[in-house]
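Lab meeting notes turned into a lecture example. A postdoc, R.K., suggested we walk through two folding results consecutively so the class can see how the record format repeats. The first protein's sequence and structure tokens come next.
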Amino acid sequence: MTRSAPDKIVEIFDGMTLRDLSKRSGATINALQSILADLGERVESEFDSITIDLAELVVLSLSKFKL
């Protein structure tokens, strides 16, 4: 019987920056920018803010990758 790692909870909020999301999720800025690009969004700086809906989509996308 194998045990899977517990799900990580990432607290998000409207207007958070990529830097905030990176710190909370443990993902790199580059990984987050890549996911946003795949979603059709363009974020140039780690200090650009994103909506709560977009942050949620990014976090859900992160669950597909091993951090």
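The second example is placed directly after the first for contrast:
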Amino acid sequence: MNSGGSAGSSSGRAGASANPFANASYQSPPNHAPASSTTGSAGTRVNKYETSLPLRVDVEAALVYLLGCFSGVFFLICEQKNDYVRFHAWQSCLIFAPLTLVYVIFALISSVLATLLLIASIVWIAFLMLQAYKNGSSLSRFSVPVVGPLAMRWTDSE
């Protein structure tokens, strides 16, 4: 499962991208465990960066937030291998499902309130996408207070 790289190569330029996934291939050599692997419960090797979809972990985690709870549900259904992406999918659902309901209520009450909430949501989505993308190389989870620990617990219990 190769991500296919990114559009436009920066390897020839001075100050190349600091993205550790720039030229990454998720195919491990035969008879060798990947450097980022751990031993699973059945004694099999598990690559922490492997995903069900043909996308890099950092890109998937960022895309989880793109459409709020809708993209969160999509990734919960489609991504079965990677706990990092699933954590962000749970967190996205827990944040943006109630926020969508509040937005609908505000839209019925006042268009000004609805517009302010929409702008705040877009800013929050952009911030969470950036955090998920930046932390993709280390797999450290950016946890939003209240819902983050719940999403972490649900992900770890799967």
